[in-house]
Write the structure tokens for this entry.
Amino acid sequence: MKKRMWLFGIIMMSLGITKTYAELGAWYGPVTVTSMGHYVDQPAGNHSRSKLFVKFNGSISIPSCTVTEANNIVGYASPSPNAWNEGWTTTWQSLLMTAQAQKKEVMLYLQKGNCNSKVGAQLLGVEVLM
């Protein structure tokens, strides 16, 4: 009986960890991309921060991020110095530019509880709707 309870406890802990990890963010949209860009706001020394931003038509309701709600903008702010072009931002840029050129709507995967004062909610993924 003790072995079964121990095994049950391990399984429940695993499910709890998986659920927590799976809820890092959520999909929002669909929206239409109106513009996007990539810049570094502190280009001197070792304090550079790369920022990818996306402006869109449509409404995304994130009460914890007034920047996104007021300005229809989301973005990715690099967490590390001098990370000008991390691999996934290039992929997101390509997907966003493709969607804009073809006038396709996108879904945006945004991190919960992370709002940058310049680029809004933290972008973690892009899906182009066909």
Remarks:
- The two ends are 53 Å apart (CA to CA).
- Strands lie at 25-40, 50-57, 73-77, 105-116, 120-128.
- The mean pLDDT is 79.
